[in-house]
Amino acid sequence: MKTLFIYTFLIFMFFTTGCSHSISIKGSRFFAPVTANEQWGGFATLSAGGDTRVTLVNDITANPPTRSSVLINQDVDAGDIFGINYLGIEAGLSVVKSLEVYLDNSLLGLRWQFLNHGAEEGWVAAIEAGYASSSQGRSFDVESGNSSSATSKVARAQGGLSLGYKVNEHFLPYLSYIYESYDVKTDVTNSYGSFGPYTDKGHHNLVSFGIMRPGPGIILALEYTHIFINWTGAPKSANQDAIGARFGFGW
Fold first, then answer.
1. Are 239 and 229 in contact (CB under 8 A)?
2. Strands, sheet with 71-72, edge to edge from the N-terminal-most edge strand
3. pLDDT tens track for 56-92
4. Residue 127: burial class (beta carbons within 10 Å; 0-12, 13-18, 19+)
């Protein structure tokens, strides 16, 4: 029974992912227009939300690997099936009042609340900018003993603006805009040799509306995001909606 389950799962994974290679990009950013009230204040949160799948190599087993077009949200992988790709970790620390160093998974950046920092109510606004460099890959073996693998090095740059109205210290609706650019280099190895690096470029425009209970104390947030997706090599631009939730603690 256990062997049957394993083979069934492998067959399912093959038909859902095939021999393609894709990268996963988070769809929810939770960029709210506030920073910690005091120096050395900060936050740590966990989040869950949709992701964007960008297929960069259509068949990593071919000679040479097939790159007919960049595809958006056309496949899934084990991370999608088990929910790993939907999870995120965020943290921040105010090095000076109103200026915060933040971490959004692998992305490190600076966030500045330039309007009404520390106010219990009223309009608030912030800007942010960050950069990340990470790797994503996949590999598989076939019965003949041959193996194929692909690894993408993803450079991501981010900039954004967020505006909200602090109804009180525990309720903040906000609207945010984030621009992200991606520069990806992919190397493929299969039974025929090594190929690449293949270069791909793209950018996402994310417009989000959220409601948040800011810190200090318990942090809660719900966010809806509409994503405008453009990649060189894709037959056309794409759009995607994402809904995310966030939970954590601020001090």
1. yes
2. 21-26, 51-57, 71-72
3. 999 999 999 999 999 999 987 766 666 677 899 999 9
4. middle
H-type alpha helices, the chain: 2-17, 78-81
Identify the residue whose tokens are 């299969």: 190
Q: Which percentage of the chain shows pLDDT scores above 70? A: 88
End-to-end CA distance of the chain: 50
Q: What pLDDT does residue 8 have?
A: 47
Distance set, CA 186 to CA 10, 60, 133, 181 (Å): 25, 11, 13, 16
| Per-residue CA distances from 78 to 12, 37, 75 (Å) | 10, 40, 11
Give the tens place of pLDDT for each residue, 19-41: 899 999 999 999 999 999 999 99
Kindly list the structural domains of the chain, giving each domain's residue range(s) and its CATH number in brackets, ordered by start.
20-250 (2.40.128)
Per the CB < 8 A criterion, the answer to whether 162 and 192 are in contact is no
pTM: 0.88
Cis before residue 197, ω within 30 degrees of 0? yes
CA gap 177, 179 in Å, rounded:
7
pLDDT tens across 105-154, in order? 999 999 999 999 999 999 999 999 999 999 998 876 655 557 899 999 99
DSSP state of 168: B
